[in-house]
Design a protein that fits this description.
Elements (H helix, E strand, L loop, with lengths): L1 H12 L6 H46 L1 H7 L4 H25 L5 H20 L35 H19 L4 H15 L2 H12 L2 H31 L25 H16 L13 H4 L5 H6 L4 H18 L6 H9 L1 H9 L2 H22 L1 H9 L3 H29 L4 H20 L27 H4 L18 E3 L4 E2 L7 E5 L6 E5 L12 E5 L8 H21 L1 H10 L6 H17 L1 H11 L2 E6 L5 E7 L1 H44 L1 H16 L1 H4 L12
Antiparallel strand pairs: 1-2, 1-5, 3-4, 4-5, 6-7
Catalytic activity: 3,3',5'-triiodo-L-thyronine(out) = 3,3',5'-triiodo-L-thyronine(in); L-thyroxine sulfate(out) = L-thyroxine sulfate(in); L-thyroxine(out) = L-thyroxine(in)
Membrane topology: Multi-pass membrane protein
Organism: Nycticryphes semicollaris
Length: 725
């Protein structure tokens, strides 16, 4: 506090003309007002940026929570859902370079406000297919629908089925084919997510660099941690909103809910996925309003006016003053051209020719290139894991979409928020340097993935589904699944292998349909339908006795709820451990780059993460998960639809195995980063301790060189300071 007050007094004493007897009082008053203005302005921007992060995180996490709903509603496989999810990164990619080079020269708050409007438009577009598609149709045998006609599920002869019922069924199928043949409405979801990515692009780089430019250096890490922590509240509300909407039927307000014969626990259930996007879009509009009234510039802190680089950067960055001066001149030319001042084609061409040397200089930094590789691989691991975590919980532990989203939003996400905030707090409290940040980031990754390894032992066995996981005689299924669906007990029935209308026999085994269970009669309607004289249900224990079954699949084994509880505990600890290294890793990235290359370096970093992690990870994770499918649905007009049932064991090994392998590879690159930093820092620290004053003077002289070019620094800003959520 004493140093700060002295600097402020010195600054204002050089810029005021007052009587001698009042100069001290006036200087202190001006310094106090300057400090309050700076702190107040940056805190207002910090609050507005935090709300924007909340809004974009809410809409992004809500998309994750509706992955299974979209998959069922549009009847598409997981790999295609991965493409839809990756379209957000494609939208980011389209304009990220433009934002990196020229965004910081313009009015940054207003660009962020415009991005919020574009983001909200994309969110609204995602919800639009609901209002143009037909009503959702799920597979159900006619006797389970409210009707006065009672039919036998096992159609031994088509004459048993009333003619009016057959005609009505065929008419509905034909009408559905005509409607589906001319529509692929999931494309609107993809385009809307693409638009969301475009709108979100300026928020991260311009928002974080605005804070970094006008915040006190020692508070930068804490402010970044605060923004990231508040942003985590967005996913909490996003998943809770997904939980609420998943309980509401997709066509709520358009159909009579009493006529719906399935519940939110059914595998064919689709919730009101579109409703949350309307809410998220409205929040994005509100979040962008404050930025239209914020100033383009704020007063810089006194500690930032005398130096363009931190003391930590001087330990790891050495550069020639001539090269530095030339680079700053190039930055000034870009700034002037962006502002429309004296555009000269030759100067612009000269600036473009400087691109390749800058790229060569950047990739010659071993710390940067190794950290970039580690981040790319780790983000592949984390993005794939987070995208399909709701699906994994639903399929592995037999939980509904509503409960899955509720658990993730209320338990996992707060652990991530606490971990990120803890990382920033540790950095500030213990004044951890670059080397310490690398150690903390590596340690959190190592112990996080080590905990993830234990999840392999916390899975559930496959549900007993006749013809898929077990035979009709109770033995484990080893033959071809499609051929095994038919047995002697249902050989006299005219059943389709493409149907998925599961029923639960009183023997605890699930049957794909009442027809394949050999049921001869039914009683009741809708959710209360009971099937009798099911010849296949009685074959497991007493083949001579026929049994009954009810609508819906059977619950998983008795051990599964206990395993789900263990999974939640380990998952929370793992989420916290991995998140602790988020802020230290981000600070490491900022401090290992030369100041005049920082904007370009962070632009390349973000570009690489988007292209090599954000886009491909959901796709190949989805392709790998599709290989574990046991039963595919069929579209009304033919063709493969979405998966109805997964092999639990195979899904566990594919999902967790792929995540763990990628995480392990990223740890090796993080170790290499730490080794290079140790190699670079040790000789300099030894020099400082041995030479004392000489080493300090060397550092001071480098700072003086930056101060001498202060008129160049003040004309440009360093954009693209990507946050690491």
């Amino acid at each position: 506090m004493e140093i700060s007050s002295k600097e402020n007094a010195h600054f204002f004493s050089n810029n005021t003309i007052l009587p001698v007897d009042r100069s001290s009082f006036k200087s202190e008053s001006s310094a106090s007002k300057e400090k309050q203005s700076c702190c107040g302005g940056i805190k207002i921007f910090l609050g507005a940026l935090s709300f924007v992060y909340f809004a974009k995180a809410l809409s992004g996490s809500y998309l994750k929570s509706t992955i299974t709903q979209i998959e069922r509603r549009f009847d598409i496989p997981s790999s295609l859902v991965g493409v839809i999810d990756g379209s957000f990164e494609i939208g980011n990619l389209l304009i990220i370079i433009l934002v990196s080079y020229f965004g910081a020269k313009l009015h940054r708050p207003r660009i962020i406000g415009a991005g919020c409007l574009i983001m909200s438009a994309g969110t609204f577009l995602i919800a639009m297919p609901q209002f143009f598609m037909g009503r959702y149709r799920y597979e159900r045998f006619p006797s389970t629908i409210n009707s006065t006609v009672s039919m036998s599920p096992c159609l031994q002869d088509k004459s048993e089925t009333p003619l009016s019922a057959l005609e009505k069924s065929h008419a509905k199928i034909n009408a559905g084919c005509e409607k589906e043949a001319g529509s692929s409405m999931w494309i609107y979801v993809l385009l809307g997510n693409l638009l969301r990515g475009i709108g979100e692009t300026p928020i991260q780089p311009l928002g974080i660099t605005y804070i970094d430019d006008y915040a006190i250096e020692e508070n930068a890490a804490l402010y970044i941690g605060c923004v990231q922590t508040v942003a985590i509240i967005g996913p909490i509300f996003g998943f809770l909103l997904g939980s609420l909407c998943a309980k509401l039927y997709v066509d709520i307000g358009f159909v009579d809910l009493d006529s719906i014969t399935i519940t939110h626990k059914d595998a064919q259930w689709v919730g009101a996925w579109w409703l949350g996007y309307l809410i998220a879009g409205a929040i994005s509009v509100l979040a962008g309003i404050p930025f239209w009234f914020l100033p383009k510039h704020l007063p810089k802190p006194e500690s930032r006016k005398n130096s363009s680089t931190s003391s930590e950067q001087s330990k790891f960055i050495t550069e020639d003053n001539k090269e530095q001066h030339k680079s700053y001149q190039q930055q000034v030319k870009f700034a002037e051209m962006a502002k429309g001042k004296s555009f000269k084609p030759l100067e612009f061409l000269s600036s473009l020719l400087n691109f390749l040397p800058s790229l060569k200089n950047l990739f010659g930094n071993p710390v940067y290139i190794l950290y970039l590789c580690a981040s790319i691989i780790q983000f592949n691991s984390l993005i794939g894991m987070v995208t399909y975590k709701p699906k994994y919980i639903e399929q592995q532990y037999g939980q509904s979409s509503s409960k899955t989203n509720f658990v993730i939003g209320l338990i996992n996400i707060p652990a991530v928020a606490f971990g990120i905030f803890s990382g920033g707090l540790i950095m500030k409290k213990f004044r951890i340097n670059v080397l310490g940040a690398a150690k903390l980031s590596l340690g959190s990754s190592f112990f996080g993935y080590l905990l993830l390894l234990s999840l392999f032992a916390m899975g559930c066995e496959n549900s007993e589904v006749a013809g898929l996981t077990v035979s009709y005689h109770g033995t484990k299924q080893t033959t071809d699944y499609e051929q095994a669906l038919f047995s002697e007990c249902n050989s006299g029935c005219l059943c389709s292998k493409n149907d998925w209308d599961p029923i639960c026999g009183e023997n605890g085994v699930t049957y794909i349909s009442a027809c394949l269970a050999g049921c001869q009669a039914s009683n009741g309607s809708g959710k209360n339908t009971v099937f009798f004289n099911c010849s296949c249900v009685g074959t497991l224990e007493s083949p001579s006795q026929s049994s009954s079954a009810v609508v819906g699949p059977c619950q998983k084994g008795n051990e599964c709820p206990k395993m789900f509880l263990y999974f939640l505990v380990v998952s929370v600890i793992t989420s916290y451990t991995l998140s602790v290294g988020g802020t230290p890793g981000y600070i490491l990235l900022l401090r290992c780059i030369k100041p005049h290359l920082k904007s370009f370096a962070l632009g390349i970093y973000t570009l690489a993460i988007r292209v090599l992690a954000g886009i491909p990870a959901p796709v190949y994770f989805g392709v790998a998960i599709d290989t574990t499918c046991l039963k595919w649905g069929s579209k009304r007009c033919g063709g493969r639809g979405s998966c109805r049932l997964y092999d639990s064991s195979a899904l566990r090994y594919v999902y967790l195995g792929l995540t763990l392998v990628l995480g392990t590879v990223s740890i090796f690159f993080s170790v290499a980063v730490l080794w290079v930093l140790r190699k670079r820092s040790s000789p300099q620290e030894e020099t400082l301790s041995a030479k004392g004053e000489r080493g300090i003077c060397g550092t001071k002289s480098r700072k003086d060189n930056f101060v001498n070019s202060d008129h160049l620094i003040q004309t440009t800003y360093w954009p693209e300071k990507e946050t690491r959520l």
